[in-house]
Amino acid sequence: MTKPDAHISAAPVSAALARIAPSRTTAMTDRAMELRSEGKDIISLSVGEPDFATPVHVVAAAKAALDAGDTRYTAVGGTARMKQAAALHFARDLGIEVPAAQVTVSAGGKQAIFHALLATLNPGDEVLIPAPWWVSYPEIVRFAGAEVVALPTDAAGGFRISAAQLAAAITPRTRWLLLNSPGNPTGATYPPEELRALGEVLRANPQVLVMSDDIYAPLRYTPGAHATLAAECPDLAPRVLTVSGVSKSHAMTGFRIGVACGPQWLIRAMETLQSHSSGNPCSISQAAAVAAFEGPQDFLADWRNRFRARRDRVVAAINALPGLSTPVPDGAFYCMVDAAPLMSRFGNDDALALHLLEHGVAIVAASGFGGKDGFRISFAADEAQLDEALRRIAAAVT
Ligand code: GLU
Description:
This protein is of the alpha/beta class.
């Protein structure tokens, strides 16, 4: 579990801020950039960011928006055109039919999650998060004054929670369940029948809202269509917020566009907060995201194949090293590497992460994700970089 930053907890910040730590993924990425600017040769596999160029038609749409003077405030939750494009994405790619009025657009999926949780949590509320989890989920929950309830998962169980585990964890104070499929940092991907089994439990617990973070849906290596709770259990859709975006699928991380759909009361609540935070998502980025959702999607299959090949390369290389192992992730572009046998040598996974950094590879320790004794590799880097990083990891641990 992450600890609040010592410098911050000593400073006159709010009690809410003192409860949280900086993002471990962005902190390691910043550190890698800093070391590079000092002339060090660092390969960063710390951040989940596709290395592919943003598609040409998306970049052209952003340029056209600038040339057309599309540089003003927009509606708080996004332009009408943007909301329609997001609704098209939810229907076509996730199987969720939703009117544009139940869609909102924000500065990355992260802001949608932040607003949804801040808008609904009260002190004492509990939020169920399958662990290992994405670094920002528990920090946002703590910032909102609510309690994180970890639902531990392991490689043997595919890093997925079971219906029985969910049923045992729910209390009258449970406000949210956070689901992420395919998941960061494990790649865990829920098949439809498992989502329906979770749905059965949720039906019996009407106080629980569900956040389904589907940002990695286009990056699935399992056969069949993507499964998501709101589509598998439409009767539950009135309490499911589904979050998606263009960052991962369309290599648009810097544009900062996330989309969410859910019940109208929640969308309104999120937009009320957004009206006082960022005001609206960037006008130029919205034009680019419309092109991403409405334009050709055929390149996605090619990107997915390249990611799959990289995944296989990383999994094989890691599993060939003494003391390291990783299961084959079903989706996203991360491997959760177990390094437990190396802990007698390094002490903990933060020390191992530092050791790897000294050998020129930036990764994020498993403890940043509510895991332990391991690290996450992002394989969203080109093949030559991955091969060199794997050589450096081998040299560092053997
Ligand atoms: N979601 C990506 C990651 O986990 C980007 C960085 C972040 O927002 O955490 O690496």
